[in-house]
């Protein structure tokens, strides 16, 4: 990452691990941690929830606009969110890091710090992984969680007509706004010696801009909603690829139509309108189609939306067009993020 080259290039995998492993603090559920052929983790339940995801430099992040610590945090969040969206409690993560030859040791160490900090914040442990060489920095995380024997997984397919659509976040569109600053070459991130990066802005007056870049680089949703009050949801998923795109996935799985409430989303749009005006962008696009929020998107029975969630729409029976996502009863243009779109 830009500016993270103050350390000498390590000599071999053992030297890298000597920098990385001291930052791991396995919890009491870990019987065997890093250093053996595999980790051994005590399961609180025989029902294991498993997911995996990858971040690739140049596709999922740009080196000049983030830091290794933030990349580690983001890699943990996007996987922990998938576990949480099933109603499961995070348990353990393993990570594979591949990087070009000559990558400074501090990048590996900072990645580990970011991964470990976010993993431990959710009560889980980073228990091992793998190091390799690649043309671009790549971070692949596999996350594991557990479900109690008497708890059904919260799937995408349980929404019913009459349910309330809700989001476990106070605002939407933040990550997309931060990404717009990055792609518009209006933001540059410099790492600090204390681990606190500085976001440098070019030609931007909006006071929230730096925070939006940070939210894009290292989103900080309340994932605990998934395995606490979210267990009462009829359907749930994490918001990875945008409200409309992910909403269509939930609608298709449940064979329903989701009708978004424009008045409920208007405050989200309003808070982004100043920056959008500076960038010549549409804040509604950020709110409706912006990805990488990783908040819990769920449906609840009428009157059952719990604290931590806020209503943003209604679940209706599908029309003749089949399952879809509408805004105040009208079709929505745009598709959201697609890796191969």
Automatic annotation (TrEMBL):
Top-rank EC class of the record's enzyme: transferase
Pfam families: AIRS (PF00586)
Superkingdom: Bacteria
Entry-linked InterPro entries: PurM-like_C_sf, PurM-like_N, PurM-like_N_sf, ThiL-like
Every PurM-like N-terminal domain range: 35-146
Ligand binding (Mg(2+) 1): 52-53, 130
List of residues binding Mg(2+) 2: 53, 82
The entry's keywords: ATP-binding, Kinase, Magnesium, Metal-binding, Nucleotide-binding, Thiamine biosynthesis, Transferase
Catalytic activity: thiamine phosphate + ATP = thiamine diphosphate + ADP
Entry's Gene Ontology BP terms: thiamine biosynthetic process; thiamine diphosphate biosynthetic process
EC number of the protein: 2.7.4.16
Chain sites annotated for binding Mg(2+) 4: 37, 51, 82
Binding residues for ATP: 129-130, 156, 240
Binding of Mg(2+) 3, residues: 37, 82, 238
Binding-site list for substrate: 60, 292, 337
UniProt-annotated binding residues for Mg(2+) 5: 241
UniProt-recorded Gene Ontology molecular function terms: ATP binding; magnesium ion binding; thiamine-phosphate kinase activity
Pathway: Cofactor biosynthesis; thiamine diphosphate biosynthesis; thiamine diphosphate from thiamine phosphate: step 1/1
PANTHER family (UniProt xref): THIAMINE-MONOPHOSPHATE KINASE (PTHR30270:SF0)
Family (UniProt): Belongs to the thiamine-monophosphate kinase family.
Miscellaneous comment text of the record: Reaction mechanism of ThiL seems to utilize a direct, inline transfer of the gamma-phosphate of ATP to TMP rather than a phosphorylated enzyme intermediate.
Functional summary from the UniProt entry: Catalyzes the ATP-dependent phosphorylation of thiamine-monophosphate (TMP) to form thiamine-pyrophosphate (TPP), the active form of vitamin B1.
Name of the protein in question: Thiamine-monophosphate kinase
Underlying gene: thiL
């Amino acid at each position: 990452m830009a500016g993270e080259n103050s350390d000498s290039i390590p000599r071999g995998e053992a030297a890298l691990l000597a920098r990385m492993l001291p930052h791991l603090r396995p919890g009491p559920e870990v019987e065997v941690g890093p250093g053996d052929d595999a980790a051994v983790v005590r399961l609180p339940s025989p029902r294991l929830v498993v997911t995996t995801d990858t971040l690739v430099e140049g596709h999922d992040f740009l080196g000049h606009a983030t830091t290794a610590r933030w990349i580690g945090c983001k890699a943990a969040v996007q996987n922990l969110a998938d576990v949480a969206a099933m109603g499961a409690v995070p348990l353990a993560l393993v990570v594979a890091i591949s990087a070009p030859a000559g990558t400074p040791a501090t990048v590996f160490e900072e990645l580990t710090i970011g991964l470990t900090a976010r993993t431990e914040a959710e009560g889980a442990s980073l228990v091992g992984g793998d190091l390799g060489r690649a043309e671009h920095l790549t971070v692949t995380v596999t996350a594991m969680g557990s479900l109690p024997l008497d708890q059904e997984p919260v799937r995408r397919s349980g929404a019913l007509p009459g349910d309330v659509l809700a989001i476990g976040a106070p605002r939407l569109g933040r990550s997309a706004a931060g990404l717009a600053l990055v792609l518009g070459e209006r933001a540059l991130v410099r790492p600090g010696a204390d681990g606190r990066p500085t976001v440098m802005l070019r030609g931007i007056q909006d006071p929230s801009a730096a925070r939006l870049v940070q939210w894009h680089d290292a989103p900080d949703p309340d994932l605990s909603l998934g395995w606490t009050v979210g267990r009462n949801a009829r359907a749930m998923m994490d918001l990875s690829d945008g409200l409309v795109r992910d909403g269509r996935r939930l609608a298709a799985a449940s064979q329903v139509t989701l009708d978004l409430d424009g008045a409920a989303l208007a405050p989200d749009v309003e808070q982004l309108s100043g920056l959008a005006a500076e960038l010549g962008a549409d804040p509604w696009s950020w709110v409706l189609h912006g990805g990488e929020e990783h908040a819990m998107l769920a449906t609840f029975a009428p009157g059952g939306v719990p604290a931590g969630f806020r209503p943003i729409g209604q679940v209706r029976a599908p029309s003749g067009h089949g399952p879809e996502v509408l805004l105040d009863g009208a079709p929505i243009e745009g598709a959201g993020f697609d890796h191969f779109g």
